[in-house]
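Good morning N.,

You mentioned wanting to compare the apo and holo forms, so I went ahead and generated the holo version with iron/sulfur cluster. This is what I fed in:
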Amino acid sequence: MVIDLNAPEAIIREHRLGSVLSYRGPASELCRLSRTGGLSCHDNTFNQCGDCSAQRAMLPISQIRDGAMVNHAPIGCAGDFSLFNSQFRRGLGYRGLPANNLRALSTNLTESDMVYGGADKLARTIRLANQRFSPAAIFITTSCASGIIGDDVEQVSQEAEAELGVPIVPVYCEGFKSRIWTTGFDACYHSILRKLVKPPKVKRRNLINIMGFTNEPAFTPFLAKLGLEANYLVHQSSVEELGRMSEAAASAHMCETLGTYLARGLEQEFGVPEVPSPPPYGLDWSDRWLRAVGQITDRSDLAEKVIIEERRRIGPKLEEIRKELSGLSVYAVAGASFGHSMLAICQDLGLKVLGMTGFHHDLRFDNDYEETNSLNNAVDLIGDMPHYHVCNKQPYQLVNILGQLKPDLLMGRHEGLPVAGVKMGIPTFFASDANLMIGYDGLVYTGRMIIRVLRSRNFARNLARHSRPPYTDWWLTQDPFMFRRSGDGF
Ligand code: SF4
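and this is what came out, ligand included:
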C-alpha cells in the first residue's frame, strides 16, 4: 500500500485496510477471511456509545510539546481537552520536563458559522494561538462541522503560514468520515509526514523510533541492552524532533494498530526500515523483536546474548508467577493489536486464554510484513480462540459476552470498558501503561500486577454486590450480536 503524501489527507481505514467493526467466531476464521475477503464494515443497528476518529487524531497532536492545536469545530468537540491536558502534564513528567498546560484552542463554530462559513474565525484563532503560545508549529484539526460547511482549511493554512512564518499543519480528521476510530491516528501521522518530516541530514545508526503513547520511557533501558536509544513519537516530541525522525536506524511501535502508518511512510519516503516483528510483549515476541532490531542494526550476536541472559535472569521469577496463575482463565478487551499483545503475555504467564474483544479489525496492515500481522501471530502462538469478537466499544455487548464466558480474570485497556468486568465481580487488570508491559521485565511486572488483582477478588465481589447494572436478565442471555446489521458476512 503506497501512502500518497501529495494528497492532503489519509485514505480512511475502511477503504485502505478493509477494516471491520463487527465479528464473532473463531480467531482462525477471521484470519482466513482477512486473507480471502468476505467481511464488510457494517455496524450495529443499536449503539450504546461511540468513539470519534477526530479525538484519536487530536490526542497525539495535542501532546507535541512545543506545538499548538486549533480545533476547527463546535466547542463540544473539545470535550476531551481536559483528558489531553492531564496526559500532557503526566507525559512531560515522564520525560523529565517541566509541567505545562495543553496549548489548544477551539474555533467554537456556531449556528451562524454553519450558515456563513467559519474560515475567518479559523484565521483569527490561528493568529491568537500564535500570539498566545509562540509555538514551533500550529496544527489545525478539522471536525464534522467544518467538513460539512466545506471551509477551505488548506487555503487558510497556506495564507496563515505566509503571514506568520510558522508551519501550519492541517490534520483532516472529520469524525463522520470514518467509522473506524483509529483512522484518526493515520490522519495525525499523514499530516506530520506531509508537512514536517525532512530528509535526513545525518543517519543516526543507534536511534530507534518508537511509536507509542504518553507512557513510562520503558523502551529506553530495554534498548540500552543493545546499545541503542529510543526516540519516542509523537507524544512529548518537539516539532524539531518530529522533523528529524527520518534520521533513525529503524522504526518500531508498541502496537501495530497505532504505528504501522507512520512506520510505512518513513520507510517509503526516507528508507527507514520498519522492524519486521511483533512488538516485544511476552517471551517469544520479545526474542523476535530483539533479533529483528539486532539484524537491522548489525547487532545480531549481541541480540542473541541478550535473549539468553534475559530469559535466564527472569526465569525463576516467572516460574513463581506461573505457579500462582497456572490454569486460570482470562479474557481480554482492547484495541485490536495491543489486545493480541496482552494475549501473548497471558500465554507466557500460564493463563488459559478464553478469547478477546477487539474494538475493530484491520484486514491488512500498511506495510508488507507478514511478521506484523498481529492476529496471525497471536493464533500461531496461542492456538485458535473460539471466542474471538470484534465489537465497536459497546459495553452492552461486553457484559453479555463476559456473563456467558465467566473468565477468572479480565484484562483490558481504554478506561470505559474494563470497569464493566469489575462491576460484574470479575477481577480486572487495567493495562493503563502499555510500555511497562514490554520485554522480559514487562512480563514479570504484568504477572505480579495480575496476582495483586486476583488477591483483591473480594473487592470486585463487593463492588458487584453494590452496583446496579442497567441491563435486564433477558439481555444477559441473548446473543451479544443480535443488533448487528444484516449482511455482516459472519
Ligand atoms: S468531530 Fe464529529 S463525531 Fe467527533 S466530536 Fe466533533 S461532532 Fe462529534
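The longest strand covers residues 204-211.

Happy to go through it together on a call whenever suits you.

Best,
F.
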